[in-house]
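One such given next:

>
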Amino acid sequence: FSLGQSIPVSLQIGSGIIMDKPRIRLQTNPVISNLNLIIDGNINGQNISYRITNISGQEISSSSLVVNVNHSNDFSIPLPDHTPPGIYFLHLKSDLMDETIRFISIR
């Protein structure tokens, strides 16, 4: 191992199966009314909770994403109507991930 090398990240699940950590992509940033996400990786059967906070850490929305086995990994999270323009953070958490994505609302 030396500086500058990338190292793949894998998680070992209780069954002994090694899975790659899911990757999350925000389709557009800045955001007008919906956060449109693509989650690459096997997330079938996962309960993914999310919360949206402003730059001061105040929560403005929270819920969970429903992951169906036979559906795509594309998700749309609506911003609350009262969301003023500014910098926000989307926090996603499941058994396989704990990610924070910064985005800008231009509503």
